[in-house]
Amino acid sequence: MHCCQAHKSVFPNNRLPRFFYIGGLFAILATYTPTLLYCASNIEIETKPSIHKMVEGAGNMTYASYLIHFPLQLLIVLVFSEVALRNRTTG
Question: Which of 18, 46, 55, 91 has the most CB atoms less than 10 A away?
């Protein structure tokens, strides 16, 4: 007897639910997208210095925005969690 045949499936008709297939697609995208971006980043593209400065400036601004917004979002989540916890214990 095969090891997988030793137990009965919890899924009807031995078919996985749809979200497993969607999750599989996510796993493929999460694996291949960074790899493709890494491979594409090694390509040298000749541009004018002015365009290079604009793209570099945009990249620096988006990173700075991330550095500002992530701690603020985390703080908001923590504050709302604390308020909800206090309401649950008092109400």
Answer: 55
